[in-house]
Amino acid sequence: MVYKQFSAGVIIRISLLLANMLCLAYIFARTDLFFTQLILLFALIYQIYNLIRFVTQTNRELSKFLLAIQHRDYSVTFDNHTLSGQNFRELNGVFREIVQSYQQVDAKRESQYQFFKRMFQQVNVGIISLDSKQEIVLMNKAAHELLQVPEGISWQVLQTKRPSFTTVVESEARNSSYLTELRLEEELKQLSIRIDTVVLLGESMRILIFQDIKNEIEQKETEAWYKLIRILTHEIMNSLTPVVSLTETMLMILGQEKGTPEEMATLTKENIEDLRFSLQTIQKRSTGLLHFLNDYRKLTRIPVPQVESINVAGIVADVAALMQGEFAKQQVNFHSEVKLDQLTIVADPKLISQVLINLLTNSLQALESVENAAISLQAHLKEQQVLIELKDNGKGIDADKLDKIFIPFYSTKPEGSGIGLSLCRQIMGLHNGSIKVYSSKGIYTRVVLSFPLA
């Protein structure tokens, strides 16, 4: 509407200007119309001035509007009488409405910025944002407190004050998580750090998110030791209690009421049989206790991984071939699939093979007396992680036992040692990986091994 009015105004002015010029040219040579020529000449000059003023004043208002938007100057006003004519009141009204809309949007954006800035400062997790030039863009209060540095510090100064922190951050891969220790005078902090990379307006930004998890780790360690000691005490007491009881019985058989030794000639055949049974039981319980302590020693003597680049398809094929006889014996339908032939991980092949063998053995035990027993072993890439997933349709695990299956010596099977999954978790931890178990009782069990991408 405004454009049509502007075009119409220009066309009318140009038309009148052309008509005036034609009239002036028509009577230009007639001396009797001198005053008429003079009037038309002045009219022509005014028409040219009016056209120029009309166009330039409109452009001036438009430029003022655009500059106000560019510089976010919302104090600029647009008067209905600034431009001549009623046709441009609508244009001025549109200008005012647009400026008011921008003003509201800007106020809302500023309000949101202040809100997020306040929330950013109040969060208890340290956050640092770095631009592509390694300059700190944002650093919240928790980050200053965790690193014990003043506000306004630069990354270069931080490198000199906290070199252990900045060195680890700069050396680690992007979009990764890791743990590191930070010593501040006499205090030791255990930091969990997450590095994410985002691109804003064409510029790469690194976001560091970190927090001190020392208390949480200590609490978990205390809980783990409590559970381990409870299990150790239970197993040792179960073995020693009958030993003590049988020893007392043997002493009663071999001793008189006054405590003097019994003569061999006075021992009956029944006494000798009781002694033999007691000694056999003591031997059995002692052997069981030795096996238990040997299993405990296995948990504490995992060798340091000798890592190398491993082709996932190759190690899956090797383990599958090794277990093929067990699958056939139990009539288990086994299926393996690696979706990328060149998928690799950096790990110790012997330890990872041991993990897969332990998991497959657990699946075979869960599939005993199960019809249409099946095991699938798949490997694929997901979100910069190599995942190896094992799934069976066996007996499953009770929901209330899932959070206990990684506790050393805890087993859901009567004959189980309870160290298999605990060993698997320790081995995965040594490879900066993780192991997770999902299960539905009587339907399935799924184990997911996660490795960093090589």
From TrEMBL:
One of its GO terms (biological process) is phosphorelay signal transduction system. The chain crosses the membrane at residues 7-28, 34-52. Keywords: ATP-binding, Kinase, Membrane, Nucleotide-binding, Transferase, Transmembrane, Transmembrane helix, Two-component regulatory system. GO terms for molecular function: ATP binding; protein histidine kinase activity. It is an enzyme of class 2 (transferase). Its EC number is 2.7.13.3. The keyword Kinase applies. It catalyses: ATP + protein L-histidine = ADP + protein N-phospho-L-histidine. This is histidine kinase.
